[in-house]
Amino acid sequence: MSSTKIVAGIILVIAVASAIILHDIFPYLDSGFRYHKHEVLSFDNLYSVERGGFMGNQLSKTIFSYGVVDEKDGILLVKSSFDVRTLADKPIFSVERVYGINSATGEHVPGYGDKDRQGYLFAPKNLKEGQPFTVWHINYDVPAHMEFKAKEKIEGITVYLYEANFQADQTKELDALPDVPEKYGITLDVNLKYWVDPVTGQLITYEDHTNAYYYDIKTGQKVSPWNTFSNRMTLPMVKSHVAKAVVDKRKIFAVRYGIPALIAMVGTVLIAASLAGKKPPLKRKSHK
Q1: Is residue 189 part of a domain?
Q2: Domain that holds residue 199
Q3: Rounded to the nearest 10 degrees, what angle do helices 3-22 and 259-277 cross at?
Q4: What domain count does the chain have?
Q5: Is 224 helix (H, G, I), strand (E, B) or coil?
């Protein structure tokens, strides 16, 4: 085997190896991760026992945020808060949770955070079309098993739409309601939708639609409705998430494909130069 072929083989191996190594080099999160003041458009339709019916949809103010607050053993502790108030600033629902997240993959790590969870903060990186995943939304704090529904375009980028239908109990979070938890608990029937960037696993936007009921704490039977509510991110927040995903994907593609391509190109030039230097000398014509 000629030395040129050996060099070509080595360069090819290096290019392929670099493509594999660099495929997942960017972390899912870093210690400076902050999503402050996600503006969420919320509607609440509270049920009145005295009136025997719903009081009608009311626009609510909702602030939704994430941020790294600490790091332990290489695991990022991410605090998330969700605060819903009436336009008159009367509290409706408020909760904070702390997640232990693997910074490389975005997965929850059991043994960290305020409870053990398995799944993802948002979605896995490098999602394949149709690939399911599990997420924990702050409102419900139960595993939501997200199923792929469609590919869509939002603000010019391709996103994957996922959906889950599940039940959750919010008795603990809503113990300020009358006779909760002494006589009643609160159970929810939830429809949750996520639109995620498949390359970075970032959440672009979400919607949920939920029916909430009082239930008898002894029998577990539903007694009456409590609220019907929905949430979705505002357009400015969606645009900001799209802009971040676009920047992050450009960095990823530049490293993932640019460096291996550069290695292959340099190798090709070196091999071409080597071959050019080994051309046989021209034979001189003999003169009789």
Answers
A1: yes
A2: 34-241
A3: 170
A4: 1
A5: strand
